[in-house]
Amino acid sequence: MRTGRRGQYRRAAIFGCAVLTGVGAAINSAQVRLGQTVAVIGLGGVGLSAVLGALAAGAREVIAVDTLPAKLDAALALGATRAFRADDPDLVAQVKAATRGGVDVAIEAASSVRALDAAYKMTRRGGTTVTCSLPPPSHTFNVPAVNLVAEERTLKGSYLGSSVPARDIPHYIALFKAGRLPVDKLITHRLTLDQINEGFDRLASGEAVRQVILF
Asked: What pLDDT score was predicted for residue 2?
C-alpha cells in the first residue's frame, strides 16, 4: 500500500489503550523526572509503551524485565538501557546492584502479583512503585507496613495511565512528531480482517506487540 493518509491512520491507531496506559503510567502516574532510573516489568504493548514513556520523560536509565528474550530484545531496540529475565531468582538483587540500591520508579505491567512484588522490592527508599495491570480480582498483594512508612515509599495504581485522552493524545502525538515517542515501532504485524485469528494466536504466544488491521 502507498504511504500518505493511510500510513498516518495506521500510526494513529496505536494511540489507544496500550500507549495511553503505558506512556501514561510513566508520565502521569509515576511522574518520571529527568535523570531518574526506571524499571518496567512485563513487556507487552503496555510495558513497552511504558519504556517509551519513561524515555520521553527523560529517564537516565530504563531497565526492562520479562520472561521472553524476544521482548527484552524489543525493549533494548526501543532504547532500554538494561534487560533482565523476570524468572531469574536473583532478579531483585541484580537490579538493586545495577542501580546502587534500587530504581527510582518501578512500573509493573505483567498482570501478576509476583511481578508487582518484584517491582516493589526493587524500588529504592523514597521511590515509587506503579501497577497498571489487572490481575484476577482474587489475587492479593502484601506490603510490610513498616517498610512503606520507614522508607517513605509510594505505591500507586494507574488505570489507563491516569489519562485524560483529550489532553494526553495530542501531547503524545506531538512527542511522536518530535521523534521522542516512536510508538510506530511497536507495530509488529499488519493483517487483514480475515487474519484476525492469526493475530490472536500471536498475542497468546507473545509473538506480537501491536497489530494493525487494515480495512
From this structure: 42
